Amino acid sequence: MKIGTWNVNGIRAREAQVVEWIGRERPDVVCLQEIKAPPSKIPAALCELDGYWCRWHGATAYSGVGLLVRRDRSASTPAFLHPPFDVETRIATVELGGVTFASLYVPNGGKDYPAKLRFLEAVEQFAAEARAAGRRLVLCGDLNVARTDQDVHPKERKPGLVGQRPEERALLERILSHGLVDVGRALDPANDALFTWWAPWRNLRQRNIGWRIDYVLASEELARSATRCAVLADFGTSDHAPVVAELSLDGG
Predict the structure, then answer these.
(1) How far is residue 49's CA from residue 183's CA, in Å, rounded to a whole number?
(2) Bridge partners, 231 (sequence order)
(3) What is the pLDDT of residue 72?
(4) Please, which residues have CB within 8 angstroms of residue 13's CB and are 6 or more apart in sequence?
(5) pLDDT for residue 93
(6) Concatenated DSSP letters for the chain?
(7) Distance of CA 211 to the CA centre of its chain
(8) pLDDT for 69-90, tens place per residue?
(9) Residues marked as catalytic
(10) What is the DSSP string of 104-166?
(11) Mean pLDDT score of the chain, rounded to an integer?
(12) How confident is the model at residue 159 (pLDDT cuts 50, 70, 90)?
């Protein structure tokens, strides 16, 4: 099972790149964030993407997520859902092979920090309820939190900056405490240059002065089978890079 996640920072601006990336990687599940478009404005090339069922959940010029599933993984249109805590079109889920996949876009928090914390708390509750019910999860997307200082370039580390605050990090750890694994870090624990987002100025991306805020979080059983969680840092013109993970739904 191959899973791809990418904050595209505008699906219409990145249409050709999304088509190229999906065509190259052929993920079984594609999670997109910050699509910034309502379903009626999604480019036809993406709505009619060969071999995929698609769910577009967005609004004009702000937020929004997409969730695509390969048709050979589901014979009919899968049931795409939005948990009750969904606000501002920030989450879509689908169940495949007994696993719930989610495309997730956590608020940045710069304008409304309490709303970000409430959303993270709701994600934690979602993870807790899934574990209690014996449901396996794969949460993918832009969580807008750098998990530790290791996930921020030394030049970007600033105590108190939104995205690096202790309470945000504590909430992310609480989410993980419900039987989830940060697959990217589990497969590359010592890499202090593993970033997924770079501010779009001063050639920070070219210099790899960034943050790791885009994740694949998987239930422990699934994470044990993971063989890849790659950041495609050289692909695309979004300020985020795509992340591609490979694991087995049978666990490991």
Answers:
(1) 28
(2) 243
(3) 94
(4) 237
(5) 98
(6) -EEEEEE-S-TTTTHHHHHHHHHHH--SEEEEE---S-GGGS-HHHHT-TTEEEEEEEETTEEEEEEEEEGGG-SS----B--TT--SS-EEEEEETTEEEEEEE----SS-HHHHHHHHHHHHHHHHHHHHTT-EEEEEEE-----SGGGB-GGG--TT-TTS-HHHHHHHHHHHTTTEEEHHHHHSTT-TT--SB--SSTTTTTTT--B--EEEEEEHHHHTT--EEEE-TTS-SSSB--EEEE--TT--
(7) 14
(8) 999 999 999 999 999 999 999 9
(9) 105, 142
(10) EE----SS-HHHHHHHHHHHHHHHHHHHHTT-EEEEEEE-----SGGGB-GGG--TT-TTS-H
(11) 97
(12) confident
Least confident of 41-45, 148-152, 248-252: 248-252
Q: What are phi and psi of 68, to 5 degrees?
A: -120, 140
Instruction: Give the CATH H-level superfamily of domain 2-246.
Output: Endonuclease/exonuclease/phosphatase (3.60.10.10)
Arithmetic mean of pLDDT, 15-19: 97
Q: Could you read off the pLDDT of 197-240 as tens digits, one per residue?
A: 999 999 999 999 999 999 999 999 999 999 999 999 999 999 99
Q: How far apart are CA 227 and CA 64, in angstroms?
A: 29
* Cβ neighbours for 249, distance < 8 A, ≥ 6 positions apart: 1, 96, 97, 98, 99, 222
- 248 pLDDT band, cuts 50/70/90, is very high
Please give the Cα distance from 23 to 154 (Å, whole number): 35
